[in-house]
Specification:
The chain is about 45% helix and about 25% strand. It is an alpha+beta fold. The strands form 4 sheets. Strands 2-1-5-4-3 form a 5-stranded antiparallel β-sheet. A 5-stranded antiparallel β-sheet has the order 7-6-10-9-8, with helices on both faces.
């Protein structure tokens, strides 16, 4: 049975009419035979088969197994002389349940009135092919033993183990069969659970093996050194494994290292250092990372080492897994870079000191030369010829320009050596002071200077003033015929301020955008635009001194925009 059993109407006795005629495919069932054998003969046959009715009834009632009888309306012949498919079609319509015990009804959760009269077709309505195959085997062998999944009336699964035996007349024809069924649902569930448990265990074993293979492939194939340290009951550290990279680093094999303490493996000095690191991991109860210089017998390397403790079920650390990455190349470059940085800092300091001393020490002799030239010019003016007067004028002008250069050089050197402590400075106030300093130049050029709201920045007040003054002076100097238009703007982010100083001046070619920030570099002659070429170099040094950058965008005839950044330490917007 492979579906819930539905109640079936009581069957009507077979007649000589249409029902029998529909079963003519059964070759041994003829109209004459149907006329000779009526349903009145069936109780007689059942009586002969159940001769000891009272004993059988008692057995039926008391048996824990399900018993039932299914009888045919007419006996059938089952051999090679008949069309077996036609016979099975007849059987599935004309074999009915005639008797069933209480245990059988309990198995299916059915009442007797729901069970009596059911046919094989009722039991296998959704799978006639399977039903016919079972009946064919039973008829071929005279009996059948099966374990099969069926369904109770409430739709729950029912596994049964059944033994079925054909009932024969004296002439060998089959009149029906009886069956004994046992509910083996519990056993099947146990078997299924056992199979599932075995399957789960097999799957777990497979996964574990695959994981072990995977970890082993990492252990052997990684470019990192991996080493294992076991912690003994007396808190000793003993090596339990070195992967190939660890062997390469240490210059020893895994077999040589197994079971040894760090001191036994690498000597007192180096071994003690290693033990101290392992002890630190043990005490911290968590992973630790550090850089270390490992001095083995065969080589010395720098590594980035990680030690991770493993705990047992009681929370006790029983093992440490270590990994080490060779960072020797990086470390050597860091050391080289640090040395270069120190050399550069020393060189810059010496250069700044030289520039300051040189410019300072040159002041006195230069003042003497200038004074005597001016004295010579005043005393002998008109007494010398025109050529001599020009020579004196050239000398005075050269001395004045040299004085300016020395002063500018002194200013440049002071940017890095004599800066004030940084403080929060209001850029609005700084700009107002700069505009006041440049008031005459602004009025003479008829310039217009605008700006957006400016923030407070962490800076050296005097250097910030010099930065704005140099940039605005530069815009006033390199102007076109039109009145200068200068606009100062700023944008803020979480970590920096971006300032811009935009003008409508003469601009410059793109190939000169970097050159203008080099000290004493000029794009124009001093007759066109006076100056020493140090102003923008000072600006660049001030900005970099404050941790920012300075650059310019420009096109000839379309003006320039100088951009510079300063840190936004407060992280506040405008």
């Amino acid at each position: 049975m492979n579906q819930p059993i539905a109640p079936r109407p009581a069957r009507q006795p077979a007649t000589h009419g249409s029902e029998v005629a529909s079963d003519q495919a059964y070759t041994q069932v003829t109209p004459k035979a149907i006329e000779d054998r009526t349903l009145a003969d069936q109780p007689k046959r059942e009586t002969e088969l159940l001769s000891n009715q009272s004993c059988l009834e008692a057995f039926f009632a008391q048996s824990p197994d399900g018993f039932f009888f299914m009888m045919l309306d007419l006996p059938i012949q089952w051999d090679d002389t008949v069309d077996k498919e036609a016979v099975l079609n007849y059987v599935f319509n004309h074999q009915t349940v005639t008797k069933v015990n209480a245990a059988m009804l309990t198995q299916y959760g059915a009442g007797e009135d729901e069970f009596i009269g059911l046919t094989p077709k009722d039991f296998f309505a959704n799978d006639l092919a399977t039903g016919k195959d079972l009946w064919r085997k039973m008829f071929d062998q005279g009996k059948l033993h099966v374990e099969i999944l069926e369904w109770k009336l409430d739709g729950t699964a029912l596994w049964i183990e059944g033994d079925y035996n054909c009932l024969y007349e004296s002439d060998g024809k089959i009149v029906g069969h009886f069956g004994i069924q046992r509910d083996i649902t519990g056993r099947k569930q146990t078997e299924e659970n056992l199979i599932k448990n075995i399957s789960d265990r097999k799957q777990a074993e497979t996964q574990l093996r695959q994981q072990e293979e995977f970890l082993q492939s990492i252990y052997n194939g990684t470019e990192q050194a991996i080493f294992v340290i076991d912690i003994t009951s007396d808190k000793e550290f003993r090596y339990a494994g070195f992967n190939p990279v660890s062997e390469k680093y240490a210059g020893v094999t895994n077999e040589q290292i197994l079971g040894k303490t760090p001191v036994e493996a690498f000597g007192e000095t180096f071994g003690t250092i290693l033990q101290q690191n392992y002890q630190l991991c043990l005490q911290s109860d968590s992973s630790i990372n550090y850089e270390e210089q490992l001095k083995f017998d065969t080589r010395t390397i720098w590594t980035l080492t990680t030690l991770s403790p493993l705990q047992d079920e009681q929370g006790q650390i029983y093992r440490i897994i270590g990994t080490a990455t060779d960072i020797s190349d990086r470390k050597h470059k860091e050391i080289e870079l640090q040395n270069q940085k120190q050399d550069l800092a020393r060189s810059n300091a010496e250069l700044q000191q030289f520039a300051y001393i040189a410019s300072h020490d040159l002041q006195e002799p230069l003042r003497m030369i200038t004074s005597y030239l001016e004295l010579l010019e005043r005393r002998y003016k008109g007494q010398l010829d025109e050529k001599a007067n020009k020579f004196i004028a050239y000398a005075v002008d050269g001395a004045a320009r040299l004085q300016t250069l020395i002063n500018d050089l002194l200013t440049y050197s002071r940017v890095g050596s004599r800066g004030q402590d940084l403080e929060f400075v209001d850029c609005e106030k700084v700009l107002q002071n700069v505009l006041l300093n440049l008031q005459m130049a602004i009025e003479q050029s008829n310039a217009t200077i605008t700006h957006t709201p400016l923030p407070q920045v962490n800076a050296d007040p005097s250097q910030l003033t010099q930065l704005f003054q140099n940039l605005i002076s530069n815009a006033l100097k390199f102007r076109q015929e039109a009145a200068p238009q200068i606009h100062i703007a700023v944008q803020g982010t979480d970590d920096k301020w971006l300032f811009s100083v935009q003008d409508n001046g003469i601009g410059m070619e793109v190939q000169y955008l970097d050159r203008i920030f080099i000290i004493f570099q000029r794009l124009h002659s001093k007759t066109e635009y006076p100056g020493t070429g140090i102003g923008l170099a000072v600006c660049k040094k001030i900005v970099e001194q404050h941790g920012g950058t300075l650059w310019v965008d420009s096109q000839p005839g379309r003006g320039s925009t100088f951009h510079f950044t300063l840190p936004n330490l407060a992280g506040t917007p405008l």
